[in-house]
Amino acid sequence: MSENYLQKIKDAGIVGAGGAGFPTHVKLDCESEVVIINGAECEPLLRVDQQLMEFFSKDVVEGLKIAMTLTKAKKGVICLKGKYKNAISNLEELVKNESTIEIKIIKDYYPAGDEQQLVYEVTNKVVPLMGLPKDVGAVVINVATTSQIAKCIPITERVITIAGAIAKPQTLIAPIGTAFSELIKACDGPTNLNEYSLNVGGPMMGYIENDWNAPVTKTSGGIIVLPKSHSLVIKKTRKTETDLNLTKAICCQCSYCTDMCPRFILGLNTEPHKVMRGLANEDPSTLGAISSVVSCCDCRLCSLYACPMDLDPGKITNMVKQSLLKKGAKTAKIVPYEVDPLRESKQVPTKRLIARLELTDYNVAAPLNHKIFDTKSVKILMKQHIGAPASPLVKIGDAVSKGTLIASCNEKLGANIHASINGHVTEITPEYIKIEA
Q1: For position 1, what pLDDT does the model report?
Q2: Can you name the CATH fold of 376-437?
């Protein structure tokens, strides 16, 4: 089964739906002791995974079983928060006679969905510096990806939450390539685009998108519409030069960014305050060890919660991290320190985080619309995943059906791309393929 099913997953173009889009057929081509399903969904306002676990719980369990078979894992664990009561009830009923599958309830904190937090919650092991969960015998998969593994058909839709300053927050099933503006309109969003911005993804790790017609991809988990005057928009759009100048001017080395860093608490030596000190003093020798930079997971807790001076240590640390990685910087696969015995007391409650982000008014239900969103035009990106962009297999004028393979990475690291609607190819560029119904 393993080799054939891995090929099916590759053919279907399945990638990690909760992060950077790592090709799933590559991730599952290993042996592990445990497969962990990440159902924490710790980003505020997003409602995708909790509803997939509630309404498509059979797919989640079936996908987990397949992943366990492929990786030869003897144990499977579905991690989710206690407040997802309907999902818990449905999943517990499905696995009550499954001796190798466990439902693990985790606390409602941020970033509970960081895969290293989940690995520790389940195994009490810490993934080493520059390591992966498989280094400690674990594989972590997102809920949406798990459901896709069970179906193993071409990925043509993405479940996505539309939230924020809109009249009807919803979680929609959108064809890949659907324009954000169409989804926002369907949720009675604002029409005066000059006064609002789009946060794509969660409010913590997401990014500000100025193009309202940008397309849905395989990794799009949410669109949060916010006034341009919102503090989150202002912080995320602040120029890097301004952040550097502010760092030099007012960083007081309080070390809150380090003390509250989830990776530092796990013993991984992540020390953003040292990065800030190094840049403030223009002295690379004070940046700290390479491990203090490359272990950053860019959760932005330091920037959007911990720093009392409204600085952006996460942005600065990640900027230095990317520079070091491009230059080939490496560190030993070790865990430098013991896990902080006060770890649980340092976990940031999601409710408190939402208040700090000034998002309490937007923290409302976004019920799942089970009907596939109807669109007449899609712009499907060639790169929706880690690895090489896909190469087009169609030409302008070709008739395609939903599920038709339209681009492939061949044997390079990447993922297949499929048509998400029936129609004709009307435009092909290095970046996307446009299909009109």
Answers
A1: 59
A2: OB fold (Dihydrolipoamide Acetyltransferase, E2P) (2.40.50)
Dist. CA 229–CA 277, nearest whole Å: 30
144-191 pLDDT tens trace: 999 999 999 999 999 999 999 999 999 999 999 999 999 999 999 998
The average confidence (pLDDT) of the chain is 95
- Domain spans of the chain, in order of start: 2-151, 156-193+206-226+358-375, 240-347, 376-437
The structure tokens listed for 37 are 């399903």
Residue 253 pLDDT? 94
Residue whose tokens read 């894992």: 73
Same fold for the domain at 156-193+206-226+358-375 and the one at 376-437?
no
Q: State the pLDDT at residue 411.
A: 85
Enter the pTM of the model: 0.95
Name the least confident of 137-141, 372-376, 409-413, 417-421: 409-413
Determine the pLDDT at residue 159: 98
**What mean pLDDT do residues 256-265 have?**
96
Q: Mind giving me the DSSP string for 15-55? A: B-TTSS--BHHHHTSS--SEEEEEE---STT--HHHHHHHH
Cα 96 from Cα 51, distance rounded (Å)? 20
Angstrom CA distances, 67 to 4, 21, 62, 241, 421, stand at 13, 17, 9, 45, 29
pLDDT in tens, 333-356: 999 999 999 999 999 999 999 999
Residue among 48, 50, 97, 55 at smallest CA distance from 78: 50
Cross-sheet strand order for the sheet of 405-408: 391-392, 405-408, 417-418
Residue 285 above 80 pLDDT? no
Q: How far apart are CA 276 and CA 416, in angstroms?
A: 41
Q: Report the C-alpha gap between 373 and 157 in whole angstroms.
A: 9
CATH label, 156-193+206-226+358-375, candidates 3.10.20, 1.25.40, 1.20.120, 3.40.1130:
3.10.20
Residue 170 contacts residue 369 (beta carbons within 8 Å): yes
Domain 2-151 class, CATH top level: alpha beta
Which residue stretches of 290-379 are H helix? Answer: 291-294, 301, 313-326, 350-356
